[in-house]
Amino acid sequence: MPAIISSPRMLELIELAERIAQSNVAVLITGESGSGKELIARAVHHYSLRCSKPWVDVSCAALPEHLVESELFGYEKGAFSGADSPKPGLFELAHHGTLFLDEVGELEPRMQVKLLRVLDGVPYYRLGGTRKVTVDVRIVAATNQDLEQMVETGSFRGDLYHRLGQICLRVPPLRERPEDILPLAEHFLKQTNPQLSFSGEALRILMGHRWPGNVRELRNVVTKAAVLARDPQIGPGDLLLAPLRAPGTATTPTVLSVPSVVPSENLDGMEKSAILRVLAQTNGHQQRAAELLGISRRTLSRKLKLYGREAVRQSYAS
Q1: DSSP-derived secondary structure letter, 55
Q2: 230-234, 256-260, 267-271, 299-303: which range is least confident on average?
Q3: 110 — phi, psi (to 5°)?
Q4: Contact 20, 44 (CB under 8 A)
Q5: Cα distance between residue 269 and residue 266, in whole Å
Q6: Residue 70: which H helix or E strand, with range?
Q7: Cα 290 to the chain's mean position, in Å?
Q8: Average pLDDT over residues 149-170
């Protein structure tokens, strides 16, 4: 996603990232989920002397625990069942470039130890290997967890925390930088359907929402509104925003209000219509469609199987 920034706080953060980028210090980026931590990480790489070298990113939470070591450090042929050929790890792929470790707080203790040694410049072995590997990699890590508290409870190594956080940057949540809300909303709307616009009341609602899901939530709300809107102008009824509950109140199922102009359609039908329309807009690119809809690729695939091939085919013809 291009950098859509208007708030002074984010502009200052980008400027700081530019200054930091000129060195090789490790950078730890903290902030709420969906606030834009990867955007700052990419800025560090973009402004660094390594900008022409590889950028490699990985979500530590997305890797199954038994595959973390082989993905990060690679393996040799025969290292385990199914290892039919050698594979370089992400550290090797990022040699001379930047390795972005997202959700680094999810690493289990044994991997924290090995990661610390590599960050200290100690050569390592691929899984099942006999030859040591030495890499030159700039590490940028990110987390939405409180690593200091995790250090106190013993779930994260203090020495690794200090090694990763030679420089710490905090990305403010969207509610703390309201100047970015409308430019981002307009950008997401243009991406999905450039023929549409927001009504004044819709803009007021967007500005008044606290966005607990940050930029990711805003993108999903705008995308759904653009897909479901029946008029050229998106109104309040098209913004399917769940009401925010007061702190300390019990969690209840979220019920989204369906616009009164479509009383005959149930939520399942609206969901199916939205999914097929986005799929048609992306020319069948399921990963891109899933991102626009704010759902996982696996969830999208499951729903398409329910709809059947004929429904999907007709969505392209419409």
Answers
A1: E
A2: 256-260
A3: -65, -40
A4: yes
A5: 5
A6: helix 68-73
A7: 13
A8: 95
**Any residues with CB less than 8 A from the CB of 84 and at least 6 apart, and which?**
77
**The pLDDT of residue 245:** 45
Of 262, 174, 269, 187, the closest CA to residue 226 belongs to 187
pLDDT of residue 246: 43
Structure tokens at 65: 């625990």
Q: At 70, which amino acid appears?
A: S
Residue type, 75: Y
- Taking alpha carbons only, the member of 180, 172, 212, 164 closest to residue 37 is 172
Entry field: residues in the chain: 318
Do 102 and 57 touch, CB atoms closer than 8 A? Answer: yes
Q: Which two tokens stand for residue 87?
A: 């594979």
Using alpha carbons, list the distances in angstroms from residue 246 to 189, 211, 294: 29, 14, 25
Structure tokens of 103? 């959700």
Tokens in use for 57? 């990113």
- pTM of the full structure: 0.74
